[in-house]
UniProtKB/TrEMBL annotation:
Signal peptide: none annotated. It comes from Candidatus Pedobacter colombiensis. InterPro entries: RhgT-like, SGNH_hydro, SGNH_hydro_sf. Transmembrane segments: none annotated. Keywords: Hydrolase. One of its GO terms (molecular function) is hydrolase activity, acting on ester bonds. Pfam families: Lipase_GDSL_2. This is Rhamnogalacturonan acetylesterase. Residues 34-226 form the SGNH hydrolase-type esterase domain.
Amino acid sequence: MSLFNKLRFAAFFSVILLMSFMTPAKKIKVYLVGDSTMSVKLISKYPETGWGMPFAIFFDESVTVDNRAQNGRSTKSFITEGRWKSVTDSLNAGDYVFIQFGHNDEVKTKKTYTTEDEFKTNLEKYVSETLKVRAFPILITPVARRSFDANGNVQESHQVYSEIVRNVAGKMNVPLIDLDKESMALLQKMGVENSKLLFNKLEPGQHPNYPAGVDDNTHFNEYGARRMAELVLAELKKLNLELAARVVKR
């Protein structure tokens, strides 16, 4: 056999050997549970966008994101409506569950209101039932509302309920993404006027879905949702979880 053929066969078998060690990445499913700041929106509500929508496109093909977040839900109503059970019925070992509530839990005038103790108990339920099937819960503090004082300082939106999320994460030793803190920092950096660019704010006649206009300091437009998703992804990378290695640049 000529030297050329020997080298060719050696290269061929090297490729075969290398391929034998290359196994496809294990499939990962990510569930998002939370409220309107995270949820998928109806076309009739565009350009309002939940941060879970752009979040889903930042992963490679081995990751599937199942966004179960719903407008107006609290930790309590998400359970009583059977939405959490539908997640746990589908949950498998190795899955991830991103849990972000608080906006609707903390408002005493809403039917979805939960007391501080109830909020804590509900979060513990989400975490323990996720861990029970050897899946990975990630607690997220509620994303900040756009609120500034007269001096241009961003105001706390969820001080009490965010602290409960932090405490539960610490007590149960599960990962925490402090989106309240990170989003407040982003709002402060952008300032009173530029931060408006993140939210669903339209003048009358500017969009057919909002003929009378809209002035929303809670829900995001497409740009704002992407910025919030990027904050979550940046914090995810700091947690050193397997899922973070599946994030790709878009």
